[in-house]
Design brief:
alpha+beta, 11 strands, eleven-stranded antiparallel beta sheet
């Protein structure tokens, strides 16, 4: 029996590794399908969402999804743009998603009081409930600049930190807190 113990352990490791690899591929396919479904839902709600180079990877210890040149526009009143967006989670903890915003970031709001917020890069974390609903999140933007309406000027900071927490009870929405340097 002692002679077969190393062989048995090797077979168990190979089976466990194969099962994990199969799980990872399944989860990566689910992430890719979820991204496509989310994009379709946003478009069905009248949002213009565009991105290039959408990819899922990160094997073996992460599930990562990334895209370049991301633009989300709401009938040209609100336009969010990111040069690069990458989100990642551990395959065994899919309810905690970290993300990074690379390159130039901007948020424009047109209308009676036009505003434009830009930043060099950023990142944060999103936490989901068991039902897939957003329960908390953070974002940090580096070197944010807020361009205010005509004759008001610019507001600049080293960083801007925003935190979102789900509201208590059945109340829709949540609480937003801001801070910065």
């Amino acid at each position: 029996m002692r002679r077969f113990l190393p062989l048995l352990l090797a077979i168990l490791l190979i089976v466990a590794g194969g099962a994990y690899a199969g799980y990872w591929v399944y989860a990566a396919d689910m992430v890719r399908g979820g991204i496509d479904e989310w994009i379709a839902e946003q478009r069905a709600h009248g949002l213009d969402l565009r991105a290039t180079d959408i990819d899922v990877g990160g094997f073996p210890l992460r599930l990562e999804a990334g895209a370049h040149d991301v633009t989300l526009a709401d009938r040209n009143r609100l336009v969010l743009q990111s040069t690069e967006l990458t989100a990642s989670a551990r395959p065994w903890r899919l309810t905690r998603i970290g993300y990074t915003l690379g390159g130039r970031q901007s948020l424009s709001i047109a209308g009676g009081l036009p505003l434009r917020l830009s930043a060099t890069e950023g990142g944060g974390e999103i936490r989901l409930g068991g039902d897939g609903r957003l329960v908390a999140g953070t974002i940090t933007l580096n070197q944010p600049t807020l361009r205010l309406p005509v004759n008001v000027g610019l507001l600049r900071a080293d960083s801007l930190d925003l935190r979102l927490a789900d509201g208590p009870g059945d109340r829709p929405g949540g609480d937003i807190a801001a801070g910065g340097d």
